Amino acid sequence: MLNRYPLWKYLLILLVFIVGVLYALPNLYPKDPAIQISAANSSTSVGESELARINQTLEQAGIAVKSQESTDGTALIRLENGSQQSAARDVVSKALGQGYTVALNLADSTPQWLQGIGAKPMNLGLDLRGGVHFLLEVDMDAAIDQRLDVNASAMREALRSEGIRYRNNTTGDNAIRFTFANAEDRSQARQLLNRQYNEFSLANDDEAGPTLVMMLTDQAVTDIQDYAVNQNLTTLRNRVNELGVSEPIVQRQGPNRIVVELPGVQDTAEAKRIVGATANLEFRLEASDSTSADQQQAFDFRNDSGRRAALERDVIITGDRVSSASTSFDDSGRPQVNINLDGPGGSQMNRATRANIGRNMAVLFIEHKTRTRTVTRDGEQVEERVPYTERGIISLATIQSALGNQFRITGLDSPTEARELSLLLRSGSLAAPIYFAQERTIGPSLGQQNIDRGVMSVIVGLIMVLAFMIVRYKGFGLIANLALTVNLTLLIAAMSILGATLTLPGIAGIVLTLGMAVDANVLVFERIREEMRGRSIQQAIHTGYERAFTAILDANITTLLVAVILFSIGTGPVKGFAVTLSLGILTSVFTGVMVSRALTNLAVGGKSLKKLWI
Amino acid sequence: MTQIDFMGKRKAAYIISILLTVIALGALAVKGLSLGLDFTGGTQVEVSYAQAPSLDEVRDELGEAGFGNYSVQTFGADTDVLVRLQQTFDEGIGEQVLGALRAQGEQVRLVRAEYVGAQVGDQLRDQSGLGMLIALGVVALYVAFRFQYKFALGALISLGHDVVILLGFFALFGLDFDLTVLAAVLAVIGYSLNDTIIVYDRIRENIRRSQSSDLIRIFNDAINQTLSRTLSTSGTTLLVLLALFFLGGDMIHNFSLALIVGVVLGTFSSIYVAAAMLLLVKLEREDLIPAKRENAADDGMP
């Protein structure tokens, strides 16, 4: 019994270790606090002259710049001092004016040669870097109701044009109902609608007169919901990009929820307003004397309380027709929004204004909001959301000439409001209302504190385990310690390669792994001690590793199963814990069995020993 | 090798286990778990004062600002205050609370603000309970597959014992049970099972190797043979957990505490409960013999 590995096994283990070290290495380079500057619209760009201006501004403000780089119209300014980061953003943002997005960033400082092989540090979770986390819930019922309303009005139109008269039309419970005077009308209508609307299943109901019930099919309901969530995801991505946050996360979670994570953002109020905003615009003509009363609607002015105006019910266009929007100031320094309409929007606007020169056109600002109130139902407190819509006129101006697809809107409160409105118009409106189901804000100091504490626990934990193993198993303790160090390296490398996110519970998972990883070695060493009675030393080593193997395998597979379950139910930080725990189990089986065996073989294999230092 | 008559003292261990379980169940029934924000829903704001405030004053200020149904406690350092509100969320609640607390001109900084919708909390609660049951079920199946169903039964009871007492511990001392603590409970299931399987593996091996039908002796041997390993691993794990408990910060304080208690329980239960249960479910030598095919699993050694 010689206890030797073939050469290729040693080389393989060495290779794995070297790869591990290389990919774990980027984590040792601290990230630089930085600001990132990008062009907010196509008319601006970040070039040499802007860089020079940025540098000058920062110098004046006494902010030390470490280095700067610019790629693809985006500049990254690394700062010497993290505490000056937000000051730097403010002065740069002020100096460059609108048209540029200035965001806080933590820039990798991985050296070029490591980046070349694709090595990058672990992502840090929000609890380690600060920022906001939103869980948004898409109101599916509202999405369906909206679709039903659109369909119902098209159906009414179709019935009218075919001369089929109906008495009553209601929508609700995923269905559109038409009540007719007699069954004959109903069968005519049924024939007509059946052809055109195949996402509905049709049925007759005679309880309250001859009624046609058009029920959305399950497939159609799913499609509408999917569409609503995906549309909202797109809109939210656009909005978040406009916010200028580095490495934001916007992703779907489950059937009707969307997670938005904005690292580094501290002003939650602004982030929330923009993420959750449902503002839109409508352009309508002011009612004239010839407008009949039922075609009129009166609205208050948004910024001029007490003033009201009656508008026509017909909408010329809505904000959905806006293709781009930006803000500027008019001659008297008031904020204005410059709007570009898309093709169809432009021609609709042109047609409507050409025929109505001299009349007034109003811009109506619309915002869908909800109030949450707690009601007691069946003796239980239930939260109920009551949606309501706020509409207010922001401007009412005389049409001087036919408008094309470019014009300006004035009458806004403040530059901030103008900026937000243009942002919302650019990014598009939400397909269905969303609610904030969960929200977390983590201050930046807490993030750094968590990192420091986490790293401290890892170091102290590691030292204690190393000391314990040396005392308990002497020479073999050294082998276990080497294996444990390799394990920690491989774990960090695996997390970096997989792009896993490190969270505070994730660090706890690493610490826990350190404690549990020596288990495999402990099992083997105890077994070797046992087997040394009555066997040669080499025989004992061999049997020790062999006998302990099934126990190691069974014990680790079960723990892995639990970690996988934890991964599937956990969210955010807890998922991070499950990830490190699972990866830790995999690496510790490798190091505890393969690496420690290789080291043992190298150290004592093939020698005739009288005594084992264990 | 040590030779302790563990099985001979199993009556005493039964009594301790039953006593702890009864206390735990009692605490759970009477006091209940004090569920954290993750599960209850609501709002919580952590702020940091330049100088330690008086909690009564903080409460008064919140009351004057018109907040209802709030609780105030220090969090870690006595300059850090955690305000919990059972109200539904309001835009910029963090700022509102800060505003109220700054009323007297104190220097207060927002550390974090969290809001969890009631529905999300409910869902998570159901999901977590289910997750815990699935975890127990899956590992029991695995043990039944790799060993034998009587072992699975023993492991399940031993894990249930750990989980119930751990939950009871949190209920008894009114410690906050949040999502990280749940993660710790699941990790404890994993850890305790790990321990149990090592003992079971040895019991299986010893039954196959010996001709004796004296199960009590076989169990005693197995526990004694693995005792040194059990204590070493628990030792290193406890060492790192203590590091985490004292150095890891407030956000994972309860998490580390749950793991520490869980590891101690898991060690105890894998020595006493798991093996003793095999006697109660009447494991017999014949359950594992003939076991020719089991050797197949021993192939593919490193």
UniProtKB/TrEMBL annotation, chain A:
Domain SecD export protein N-terminal TM spans what residues? 2-104
Which residue windows are transmembrane per the record? 7-25, 454-471, 478-500, 506-528, 548-570, 576-600
Q: Which residues form the Protein translocase subunit SecDF P1 domain?
A: 229-286
Q: Where is this region: Disordered?
A: 324-349
Membrane topology type: Multi-pass membrane protein
Q: Which SUPFAM superfamilies match?
A: Multidrug efflux transporter AcrB transmembrane domain
Q: Does the keyword section mention Zinc-finger?
A: no
Main localization is membrane
Q: Which residues form the SecDF P1 head subdomain domain?
A: 300-432
Which residue numbers delimit the Protein export membrane protein SecD/SecF C-terminal domain? Answer: 437-599
Q: Where in the cell is it found?
A: Cell membrane
Cite the Pfam families for this sequence.
Sec_GG, SecD-TM1, SecD_1st, SecD_SecF_C, SecDF_P1_head
Q: Where is the composition biased (Polar residues)?
A: 324-339
Q: Which InterPro entries match?
A: SecD, SecD-TM, SecD/SecF_arch_bac, SecD/SecF_CS, SecD_1st, SecD_SecF_C, SecD_SecF_C_bact, SecDF_P1_head
User: How does the record describe its quaternary structure?
Assistant: Forms a complex with SecF. Part of the essential Sec protein translocation apparatus which comprises SecA, SecYEG and auxiliary proteins SecDF-YajC and YidC.
- Describe the task this protein carries out: Part of the Sec protein translocase complex. Interacts with the SecYEG preprotein conducting channel. SecDF uses the proton motive force (PMF) to complete protein translocation after the ATP-dependent function of SecA.
* Protein family membership: Belongs to the SecD/SecF family. SecD subfamily.
NCBIfam families in UniProt: 2A0604s01, secD
- The name on file for this protein is Protein translocase subunit SecD
From TrEMBL, chain B:
Residue ranges annotated as transmembrane are 12-30, 128-145, 152-173, 179-200, 231-249, 255-281
Q: Does the keyword Nucleotide-binding apply?
A: no
| Coiled-coil intervals | none
Where does the protein end up?
Answer: Cell membrane
Ordered alphabetically, the record's keywords are: Cell membrane, Membrane, Protein transport, Translocation, Transmembrane, Transmembrane helix, Transport
* Pfam families associated with the record: Sec_GG (PF07549), SecD_SecF_C (PF02355)
Keyword Zinc attributed: no
Q: Protein export membrane protein SecD/SecF C-terminal domain: which residues?
A: 101-282
How is this protein positioned relative to the membrane?
Answer: Multi-pass membrane protein
For this chain, the family text in UniProt reads: Belongs to the SecD/SecF family. SecF subfamily.
Role? Part of the Sec protein translocase complex. Interacts with the SecYEG preprotein conducting channel. SecDF uses the proton motive force (PMF) to complete protein translocation after the ATP-dependent function of SecA.
Q: How does it assemble?
A: Forms a complex with SecD. Part of the essential Sec protein translocation apparatus which comprises SecA, SecYEG and auxiliary proteins SecDF-YajC and YidC.
Q: Which PANTHER family match?
A: PROTEIN TRANSLOCASE SUBUNIT SECF, PROTEIN-EXPORT MEMBRANE PROTEIN SEC
* Name of the protein in its database record: Protein-export membrane protein SecF
Species assigned in the record: Kushneria pakistanensis
Phylogenetic classification of the source organism: Bacteria, Pseudomonadati, Pseudomonadota, Gammaproteobacteria, Oceanospirillales
Q: Which gene encodes it?
A: secF
